[in-house]
Amino acid sequence: MKFFPAVAALSAFLAGVSAQSINIGYPQDGATVQAGSNLTVEIDRPNTLSGSTEIAVVIGVQSCASSPCHSPADGLGNILYNGGYKPQYNQPPDSKPPHQNFTVTIPSTLAKGKALLGVAHMTLIGAGAAPILETRNITLNVV
């Protein structure tokens, strides 16, 4: 009988964690970018009713032109941004979730071909301030 409450509590916790997850809203997966150019990276966080404290995001890029890409959880490659994250709604409000845009520079020395744009996100959720670290990534085509 104690099994059901434990499963229910775990499900509620996982739902809360899922609601705090970020997404890379821009650029789209498979986008073409030029080495040495600026790129806007939009990090979206779906609206949530549970309390959270945003800590930071780290954005990095790694070349996969001559070898397979590694998971961002194993390393982000060249760090393009490392700092605060304060997602906001657009003003006036539209259909976008809370988000923040970051302008980063794709290294001019990044090899042409496939690259992985990775984002690490740190947040504290709930009354107990449980720390959550997650990673997301998309593939870019560097020209």
UniProtKB/TrEMBL annotation:
<dbReference type="Pfam" id="PF19271">
    <property type="entry name" value="Nis1"/>
</dbReference>
<keyword id="KW-0732">Signal</keyword>
<protein>
    <submittedName>
        <fullName>Uncharacterized protein</fullName>
    </submittedName>
</protein>
<dbReference type="InterPro" id="IPR045469">
    <property type="entry name" value="Nis1"/>
</dbReference>
<feature type="signal peptide">
    <location>
        <begin position="1"/>
        <end position="19"/>
    </location>
</feature>
